[in-house]
Amino acid sequence: MSSNSLKAVEKRVAKRRQVYRPILQSPFVNEEHQWPLVKDQAFVLEVLKTSILSKCQHLQEVPMPEWPWSMLVEYNDIVGYLSGKEDDDALDVLLFVCNKEPDVPGVMLQQIPLLSYMSSHRVTIVQLPKGSLPIINRLVELPYGMLLLKCDSKLDPSFQRQIESQVSPVEGGFPWLDNLKYSATKVKLIKTTAAIPQKNKT
Amino acid sequence: MAKNKSKGNQNMDENGTILANPPKAIGNVELFQRLNYLYQLSTWNTMLYGKNDAMSRSYIKNLDFISKKTKCGLLPSIKRTICKKCKRVLIPKKTCTYSVSSKLSKRKKHDKEKIRKNEDFIVTCVCGEVKTFRVGLNRSHATFYEKEGTLINL
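^ inputs. structure came back:
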């Protein structure tokens, strides 16, 4: 038998109703295709750990510019490097991103694929698997879950080849940048509630 | 008669909210198509002619006006890429710069934990307008639209 308390009666009377409102999504944000697909993410993490990060652990007391490879971990440094003026000697760059971690703000991650595309350097974005940030932080601290490696003469070319072989190119990532191609309207529905107007019995 | 029957069969959750099925189609699709077209046109103009293109700004001005008058919503992924002051589309290396900064006095700058809590993500438009996101307060913050189950595909 149901209770007749005031609270129970109040709950039985509907106050709100579920509504679905249409909303426009950005034509250039496609969650499925924005980040390049990495075939074997666990393998990439393992290669990164053994080839770079484990060695970095022993270089904690050495300042970063003197390390045996050119590496950036700070957000401002990475953004400054990628948005630098166009050079004749554009480098290949590997950008490792922990984009599935709750500790990395989403609003900062949203800008990375576009920034990489706009950069004068040839950037290969490598997304790392979920749970990789705590593992990496034990070896090198990544404050924003990003690690940029410049593929210059200091870096082992076989390491670069191993990583790049695992990354497939972005499918239709930013259509308007390559040529004039209209992207269809993406309308989604927001699931929310609205108040039901109460009728006054006076 | 049918109305009464449907009222009797209303599904209600524990908070007293009447549940409903999502619609199969939406109204005013042409308005959304227009907004989508204006946004793409403006972005393309900015990419071609850079920060000093008046046409791209006027397209966004139209987009803003139409979305407000017709109450057609835009997701934050669009709104974050528009400057509220000059109506430019914010594209890195073309019309905006990104940075992270912490508003702390020099005395407190040795405390790493405090620095992280006071971090702001700043998007600066070429017109000087600044968008600030307080990312340090809650790094795992997600807007209402980014939460799981809020957005439904048609």
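Chain A touches chain B through 55 residues (CB under 8 Å). The CA atoms of residues 31 and 83 of chain A lie 23 Å apart.
thumbs up if we can close this ticket
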